[in-house]
Protein backbone atom coordinates (compact mmCIF):
# COMPACT_ATOMS: atom_id res chain seq x y z
CA UNK A 1 0.00 0.00 0.00
CA UNK A 2 2.77 2.39 0.99
CA UNK A 3 4.62 1.86 -2.34
CA UNK A 4 1.43 2.22 -4.37
CA UNK A 5 0.62 5.58 -2.69
CA UNK A 6 4.07 6.95 -3.40
CA UNK A 7 3.89 5.78 -7.00
CA UNK A 8 0.52 7.52 -7.35
CA UNK A 9 1.94 10.74 -5.85
CA UNK A 10 4.97 10.53 -8.13
CA UNK A 11 2.78 10.14 -11.19
CA UNK A 12 0.66 13.14 -10.16
CA UNK A 13 3.75 15.29 -9.56
CA UNK A 14 5.24 14.30 -12.90
CA UNK A 15 1.97 15.06 -14.69
CA UNK A 16 1.77 18.47 -12.96
CA UNK A 17 5.34 19.26 -13.94
CA UNK A 18 4.58 18.43 -17.58
CA UNK A 19 1.60 20.81 -17.48
CA UNK A 20 3.76 23.60 -16.02
CA UNK A 21 6.48 23.07 -18.64
CA UNK A 22 3.95 22.96 -21.43
CA UNK A 23 2.31 26.10 -20.10
CA UNK A 24 5.62 27.93 -19.95
CA UNK A 25 6.44 26.89 -23.49
CA UNK A 26 3.06 28.06 -24.71
CA UNK A 27 3.48 31.39 -22.91
CA UNK A 28 6.92 31.90 -24.48
CA UNK A 29 5.66 31.01 -27.93
CA UNK A 30 2.69 33.32 -27.48
CA UNK A 31 4.97 36.20 -26.46
CA UNK A 32 7.31 35.58 -29.40
CA UNK A 33 4.37 35.42 -31.77
CA UNK A 34 2.93 38.63 -30.31
CA UNK A 35 6.28 40.34 -30.73
CA UNK A 36 6.52 39.18 -34.34
CA UNK A 37 3.00 40.43 -35.02
CA UNK A 38 3.81 43.76 -33.37
CA UNK A 39 6.87 44.25 -35.60
CA UNK A 40 4.83 43.28 -38.64
CA UNK A 41 2.09 45.74 -37.74
CA UNK A 42 4.61 48.52 -37.14
CA UNK A 43 6.25 47.83 -40.50
CA UNK A 44 2.86 47.96 -42.20
CA UNK A 45 2.10 51.29 -40.52
CA UNK A 46 5.35 52.88 -41.73
CA UNK A 47 4.80 51.34 -45.18
CA UNK A 48 8.18 49.57 -44.94
CA UNK A 49 9.82 53.00 -45.17
CA UNK A 50 12.74 54.54 -43.29
CA UNK A 51 12.53 58.31 -42.88
CA UNK A 52 15.81 59.78 -44.08
CA UNK A 53 17.53 63.14 -44.44
CA UNK A 54 19.44 64.98 -47.17
CA UNK A 55 20.85 62.95 -50.07
CA UNK A 56 24.62 62.58 -50.01
CA UNK A 57 24.89 62.55 -46.21
CA UNK A 58 27.10 59.76 -44.87
CA UNK A 59 24.23 58.22 -42.94
CA UNK A 60 22.14 58.08 -46.12
CA UNK A 61 24.95 56.32 -47.98
CA UNK A 62 25.19 53.81 -45.13
CA UNK A 63 21.42 53.28 -45.22
CA UNK A 64 21.46 52.61 -48.96
CA UNK A 65 24.12 49.99 -48.25
CA UNK A 66 22.01 48.51 -45.45
CA UNK A 67 19.09 48.19 -47.87
CA UNK A 68 21.29 45.93 -49.98
CA UNK A 69 23.18 44.02 -47.29
CA UNK A 70 20.28 43.05 -45.00
CA UNK A 71 18.13 40.40 -46.69
CA UNK A 72 14.92 41.60 -45.01
CA UNK A 73 15.49 45.22 -46.07
CA UNK A 74 16.49 44.23 -49.59
CA UNK A 75 13.15 42.46 -49.96
CA UNK A 76 11.28 45.74 -50.33
CA UNK A 77 12.13 48.36 -47.70
CA UNK A 78 12.87 51.87 -48.94
CA UNK A 79 14.23 55.13 -47.54
CA UNK A 80 12.55 58.50 -47.97
CA UNK A 81 15.02 61.21 -48.98
CA UNK A 82 14.03 64.40 -47.18
CA UNK A 83 15.85 66.86 -44.94
CA UNK A 84 16.96 66.90 -41.33
CA UNK A 85 14.14 69.31 -40.49
CA UNK A 86 11.52 67.15 -42.21
CA UNK A 87 12.83 64.03 -40.49
CA UNK A 88 12.67 65.57 -37.01
CA UNK A 89 9.20 66.97 -37.73
CA UNK A 90 7.96 63.49 -38.67
CA UNK A 91 9.62 62.04 -35.57
CA UNK A 92 7.92 64.61 -33.32
CA UNK A 93 4.50 63.92 -34.85
CA UNK A 94 4.92 60.17 -34.49
CA UNK A 95 6.00 60.39 -30.86
CA UNK A 96 3.15 62.77 -29.97
CA UNK A 97 0.71 60.09 -31.16
CA UNK A 98 2.90 57.16 -30.04
CA UNK A 99 3.02 55.82 -33.58
CA UNK A 100 5.83 53.71 -35.06
CA UNK A 101 8.58 55.42 -37.03
CA UNK A 102 12.07 54.40 -38.17
CA UNK A 103 14.56 57.19 -38.92
CA UNK A 104 18.16 57.68 -39.92
CA UNK A 105 19.49 59.08 -36.66
CA UNK A 106 22.68 60.20 -34.99
CA UNK A 107 23.94 61.38 -31.68
CA UNK A 108 24.82 63.95 -30.45
CA UNK A 109 21.47 65.48 -31.42
CA UNK A 110 18.75 67.28 -29.49
CA UNK A 111 16.23 64.54 -30.31
CA UNK A 112 18.06 62.21 -27.90
CA UNK A 113 17.89 64.85 -25.17
CA UNK A 114 14.17 65.46 -25.77
CA UNK A 115 12.79 61.99 -26.59
CA UNK A 116 13.33 58.40 -25.42
CA UNK A 117 14.96 56.80 -28.44
CA UNK A 118 17.16 53.80 -29.16
CA UNK A 119 19.47 52.66 -31.95
CA UNK A 120 18.60 49.39 -33.61
CA UNK A 121 21.41 46.86 -33.30
CA UNK A 122 23.46 46.59 -36.49
CA UNK A 123 24.94 43.05 -36.58
CA UNK A 124 26.54 43.59 -39.99
CA UNK A 125 28.31 46.78 -38.85
CA UNK A 126 27.02 48.83 -41.78
CA UNK A 127 26.86 52.01 -39.68
CA UNK A 128 30.22 51.49 -38.03
CA UNK A 129 31.10 51.71 -34.38
CA UNK A 130 31.26 54.74 -32.10
CA UNK A 131 32.72 57.70 -33.97
CA UNK A 132 34.60 60.92 -33.29
CA UNK A 133 34.02 64.36 -34.74
CA UNK A 134 37.23 65.98 -35.92
CA UNK A 135 38.42 69.50 -36.65
CA UNK A 136 40.06 70.07 -40.04
CA UNK A 137 41.90 73.15 -41.31
CA UNK A 138 43.43 74.35 -44.53
CA UNK A 139 47.15 73.96 -45.10
CA UNK A 140 48.96 77.06 -43.93
CA UNK A 141 46.39 78.19 -41.35
CA UNK A 142 48.81 77.43 -38.52
CA UNK A 143 51.33 79.88 -39.96
CA UNK A 144 48.80 82.50 -41.12
CA UNK A 145 46.62 82.58 -38.01
CA UNK A 146 48.44 80.84 -35.15
CA UNK A 147 46.01 82.17 -32.53
CA UNK A 148 42.95 80.83 -34.34
CA UNK A 149 44.73 77.56 -35.07
CA UNK A 150 45.53 77.14 -31.38
CA UNK A 151 41.89 77.60 -30.37
CA UNK A 152 40.70 75.21 -33.06
CA UNK A 153 43.28 72.62 -32.04
CA UNK A 154 42.25 72.84 -28.37
CA UNK A 155 38.49 72.84 -29.00
CA UNK A 156 37.00 69.79 -27.30
CA UNK A 157 33.64 69.12 -25.66
CA UNK A 158 31.21 66.30 -24.86
CA UNK A 159 28.05 64.97 -26.54
CA UNK A 160 26.09 66.36 -23.58
CA UNK A 161 27.58 69.81 -24.18
CA UNK A 162 26.59 69.74 -27.84
CA UNK A 163 23.09 68.43 -27.14
CA UNK A 164 22.43 71.17 -24.59
CA UNK A 165 23.17 73.84 -27.20
CA UNK A 166 21.00 72.09 -29.79
CA UNK A 167 18.10 71.63 -27.37
CA UNK A 168 18.19 75.30 -26.34
CA UNK A 169 17.97 76.22 -30.02
CA UNK A 170 15.14 73.77 -30.59
CA UNK A 171 13.26 75.30 -27.67
CA UNK A 172 13.18 78.74 -29.29
CA UNK A 173 16.58 80.41 -29.02
CA UNK A 174 18.68 81.14 -32.07
CA UNK A 175 21.73 78.91 -32.40
CA UNK A 176 23.91 81.98 -31.80
CA UNK A 177 22.07 82.80 -28.56
CA UNK A 178 22.25 79.17 -27.42
CA UNK A 179 25.99 79.10 -28.11
CA UNK A 180 26.59 82.32 -26.16
CA UNK A 181 24.60 81.02 -23.18
CA UNK A 182 26.54 77.75 -23.18
CA UNK A 183 29.84 79.65 -23.29
CA UNK A 184 28.82 81.85 -20.35
CA UNK A 185 27.95 78.74 -18.34
CA UNK A 186 31.18 76.93 -19.24
CA UNK A 187 33.93 79.51 -18.92
CA UNK A 188 36.23 76.91 -17.38
CA UNK A 189 36.25 74.98 -20.65
CA UNK A 190 36.62 78.14 -22.70
CA UNK A 191 39.67 79.04 -20.62
CA UNK A 192 41.29 75.73 -21.58
CA UNK A 193 40.83 76.55 -25.27
CA UNK A 194 42.03 80.15 -25.05
CA UNK A 195 44.71 80.17 -22.34
CA UNK A 196 47.69 82.20 -23.56
CA UNK A 197 46.03 83.11 -26.88
CA UNK A 198 46.51 86.79 -27.70
CA UNK A 199 43.70 88.86 -29.16
CA UNK A 200 43.71 90.06 -32.75
CA UNK A 201 42.11 93.06 -34.39
CA UNK A 202 39.50 91.98 -36.90
CA UNK A 203 41.39 89.19 -38.68
CA UNK A 204 38.94 87.47 -41.03
CA UNK A 205 38.41 83.71 -40.78
CA UNK A 206 35.83 81.49 -42.48
CA UNK A 207 34.35 78.37 -40.90
CA UNK A 208 32.46 76.01 -43.19
CA UNK A 209 29.89 73.57 -41.84
CA UNK A 210 27.13 71.19 -42.84
CA UNK A 211 23.55 72.09 -42.01
CA UNK A 212 23.16 69.39 -39.37
CA UNK A 213 22.01 70.88 -36.06
CA UNK A 214 25.02 69.28 -34.38
CA UNK A 215 27.51 71.05 -36.63
CA UNK A 216 25.68 74.36 -36.48
CA UNK A 217 25.93 74.11 -32.68
CA UNK A 218 29.66 73.40 -32.63
CA UNK A 219 30.44 75.98 -35.32
CA UNK A 220 28.50 78.71 -33.52
CA UNK A 221 30.32 77.96 -30.27
CA UNK A 222 33.77 78.08 -31.90
CA UNK A 223 32.82 81.17 -33.89
CA UNK A 224 31.77 83.03 -30.74
CA UNK A 225 34.99 82.08 -28.93
CA UNK A 226 37.02 83.34 -31.90
CA UNK A 227 35.01 86.59 -31.97
CA UNK A 228 35.78 87.13 -28.32
CA UNK A 229 39.44 87.01 -29.31
CA UNK A 230 38.93 89.67 -31.98
CA UNK A 231 38.39 87.57 -35.11
CA UNK A 232 35.89 88.53 -37.79
CA UNK A 233 34.20 85.17 -38.31
CA UNK A 234 32.17 84.13 -41.32
CA UNK A 235 30.17 80.91 -41.15
CA UNK A 236 29.29 79.24 -44.45
CA UNK A 237 26.77 76.34 -44.65
CA UNK A 238 27.62 73.79 -47.34
CA UNK A 239 27.06 70.16 -48.28
CA UNK A 240 29.39 67.56 -46.79
CA UNK A 241 31.56 67.11 -49.89
CA UNK A 242 31.91 70.88 -50.32
CA UNK A 243 32.97 71.26 -46.67
CA UNK A 244 35.99 69.03 -47.22
CA UNK A 245 36.68 70.33 -50.72
CA UNK A 246 36.66 74.00 -49.69
CA UNK A 247 39.01 73.44 -46.73
CA UNK A 248 41.36 71.34 -48.89
CA UNK A 249 41.39 74.05 -51.57
CA UNK A 250 41.96 76.83 -49.03
CA UNK A 251 38.65 78.49 -49.86
CA UNK A 252 37.44 77.91 -46.29
CA UNK A 253 39.78 78.12 -43.32
CA UNK A 254 38.47 75.33 -41.09
CA UNK A 255 35.57 73.06 -40.15
CA UNK A 256 34.70 71.33 -36.89
CA UNK A 257 32.31 68.70 -38.28
CA UNK A 258 34.26 65.82 -39.81
CA UNK A 259 32.60 62.56 -38.63
CA UNK A 260 35.06 59.65 -38.72
CA UNK A 261 35.98 56.92 -39.30
CA UNK A 262 32.75 55.90 -41.06
CA UNK A 263 30.28 58.70 -41.79
CA UNK A 264 32.56 60.94 -43.87
CA UNK A 265 35.12 58.25 -44.72
CA UNK A 266 34.94 58.48 -48.52
CA UNK A 267 35.23 62.24 -48.81
CA UNK A 268 37.85 62.41 -46.04
CA UNK A 269 40.01 59.83 -47.82
CA UNK A 270 39.74 61.90 -51.00
CA UNK A 271 41.03 65.12 -49.42
CA UNK A 272 42.99 64.08 -46.32
CA UNK A 273 46.40 64.79 -47.87
CA UNK A 274 45.35 68.32 -48.78
CA UNK A 275 44.23 69.48 -45.34
CA UNK A 276 45.37 69.47 -41.71
CA UNK A 277 43.66 67.02 -39.33
CA UNK A 278 43.61 68.66 -35.89
CA UNK A 279 42.15 65.62 -34.14
CA UNK A 280 38.92 64.90 -32.30
CA UNK A 281 36.82 67.69 -30.82
CA UNK A 282 34.15 65.23 -29.60
CA UNK A 283 34.12 61.50 -28.87
CA UNK A 284 31.13 59.17 -28.59
CA UNK A 285 29.24 60.09 -31.76
CA UNK A 286 27.10 57.42 -33.42
CA UNK A 287 24.88 56.94 -36.48
CA UNK A 288 22.31 54.29 -37.34
CA UNK A 289 18.63 53.45 -37.58
CA UNK A 290 16.68 54.86 -34.65
CA UNK A 291 13.22 54.15 -33.22
CA UNK A 292 11.23 55.31 -30.16
CA UNK A 293 11.74 53.01 -27.17
CA UNK A 294 8.05 52.08 -27.16
CA UNK A 295 8.57 50.10 -30.38
CA UNK A 296 9.05 46.39 -29.66
CA UNK A 297 12.11 45.85 -31.83
CA UNK A 298 15.82 45.76 -31.05
CA UNK A 299 17.74 44.90 -34.24
CA UNK A 300 17.75 45.74 -37.93
CA UNK A 301 17.55 42.00 -38.56
CA UNK A 302 14.23 41.92 -36.68
CA UNK A 303 12.54 44.23 -39.17
CA UNK A 304 10.02 42.01 -40.98
CA UNK A 305 10.10 41.05 -44.64
CA UNK A 306 7.51 42.94 -46.68
CA UNK A 307 4.42 40.88 -47.49
TrEMBL record:
Q: Specify the superkingdom.
A: Bacteria
Give the InterPro entries listed for this entry: ABC_Gly_betaine_transp_sub-bd (IPR007210)
The record places domain ABC-type glycine betaine transport system substrate-binding at 40-184, 205-303
* The keyword DNA repair belongs to this UniProt entry's keyword annotation: no
Q: Name one Pfam family in it.
A: OpuAC
Question: Where in or outside the cell?
Answer: Cell membrane
Q: Which UniProt keywords apply?
A: Cell membrane, Membrane, Transport
Is Cell membrane tagged as a keyword?
Answer: yes
Q: Which PROSITE patterns match?
A: PROKAR_LIPOPROTEIN (PS51257)
**What name appears for this protein in its UniProt entry?**
Glycine betaine/proline transport system substrate-binding protein
